Structures are given as C-alpha cells and as structure tokens.
Amino acid sequence: MSRRRWGYFSAGLGLGWLLVALWFGAISVRSQPAPPATGAQLLINPRQVAEALYPELPDFPKANHYIRQDNRRPAPESTLLERFIVYHTTVKGRSPLSRFDWLISLADYLGVNDFLRPETYPGRTYLTTNPMEQDVAAIRQLNRQQRQALVNTLTAFYARQAGLPTTTPQLPQTEVLPQPVPRNPSGSVLPPIPQPGGATLLIPPEPPRPQPTGDARFLLP
Q1: I need a surface site. Which of 38, 75, 94, 132 has the fewest CB within 10 A?
Q2: Is 157:53 a contact under the CB 8 Å cutoff?
Q3: Measured in whole angstroms, how far is the alpha carbon of residue 45 from the centre of its chain?
Q4: Can you give the pLDDT at residue 121?
Q5: Cβ–Cβ under 8 Å, residues 50 and 81
Q6: Tens digit of pLDDT for each residue in 70-129?
Q7: What is the DSSP string of 35-57?
Q8: Whole-angstrom distance, CA of residue 82 vs CA of residue 88
C-alpha cells in the first residue's frame, strides 16, 4: 500500500472512531437523569396555579369581574392571584421558590418597595380595564395573617413542584442560661451587688447598758 493510500486509510479510520465515540457519548448523556428543576425552569401556567391554590386561600379575593377586549365577554378566569403570580415571575422575573422574593413583590403592592406601572401590569393587554389600581387596593385590605398565608402557600406550592422540602424549620427554644459571675479587669470576683435593706447590716451593735448598783437596783422592772 502506497504512503498516500495509507494516509487516506488512517484518516478514515480515525474519523470512524471519532463518530463511534460521539455516538456512544450521546447515548450516555441521554441516559442520564434530568437534574431537578430550578426557579427559572418551573414553567407552570399561572392560571392553573391560581385555580389550584384558591381553595387553600379562601379569604383571598378573586377580583375576576373584568371584560375581555376581543369579544366583550366576562373573563372570570383572570383572577387577582393569577395576576400577582404573573407580576412576580414575568414582570419582575423573581424566583417562585424564594419566600423572600414573594415578600418583595407583596411589598410592591403595599407601596413600600417598588412602584407598579400600568404599562407593564398583567391583564392590560386583554382586559378592557387595567386592573392594577383595584388589585393594589384589594391586597392592601388584607390583614397580616392573610398576607403571610399568601406568601407561605405560594412558596410551598412551587417547592413541591421542584421537589424541595416544604417543612419550615423549627426555631430552637430559648434556654435560660446562668448569669455570669461579675469580675473586674484583673480577673478577681467582684463582691455581690447590695440588696435593698442590706445597709442595716453595717450598723454596729449597741453597747450593753450598765447595770444599776446600790439602792438603784430596786428601780429595775
């Protein structure tokens, strides 16, 4: 075999082995299990999430009395909870797995963090009335327990979808520790702090009275 033919044969053989390696590599990659979903990969329809969570939030208003722009018919499927989720995940791009992020979005509605903008609020493109102002008023009427229930329910739901634990860690109980012994800078123990009435112990005892002698002894009681 000539040197040129041997070079062609070697190049073809190397290319064949490369294709075989790539093929088996692709098979091994495909056979590996998919990693758990992260916050950005949770592609869950907010409308379906709202429908699933409203039974767990009976006090949360639906605010679904709006009219669609295209056919002028009611849009009961557009709820306050759905719009809140869309605002959190799409408008602000915050993680649905973070309880702190949900609190930040809730702070936007309460007017203590960021300002909501009518041109980016969910529902403005398909409803005849922008629901932003009424949604803000509805959330501001919730009490503290209802707001906490909203944040906890949303965080737990998305954690379950991502396969994360949903239990809230219990804080350890506060233990009563013994008080440290007071010491001065040299390290010696300081005397105890005087208690009320302790100054009477510093009064010297009265000296004994002299006993009468002679006829004066008859005056004793």
Answers
A1: 38
A2: yes
A3: 22
A4: 98
A5: yes
A6: 999 999 999 999 999 999 999 999 999 999 999 999 999 999 999 999 999 999 999 999
A7: PPP-GGG----HHHHHHHHGGG-
A8: 10
> Is 98 within the bounds of a domain?
yes
Backbone phi, then psi, for 74, in 5-degree steps? -60, 150
Residue 56 lies in a domain: yes
Residue 198 forms part of a structural domain:
no
Residues 96, 19: Cα–Cα separation, whole Å: 42
Number of other CB atoms surrounding residue 193 within 10 Å = 7
Give dist(CA 106, CA 116) in Å, integer.
11
- pLDDT over threshold 50, residue 215: yes
Q: Is 88 exposed, middle or buried (0-12, 13-18, 19+ CB in 10 A)?
A: buried
The residue segments making up the domain with residue 84 are: 39-161
Q: Is residue 6 part of a domain?
A: no
Which residue has 């758990």 as its token pair?
36
Given the structure tokens 């639906």, which residue do they identify?
62
C-beta separation of 89 from 105 below 8 A: no
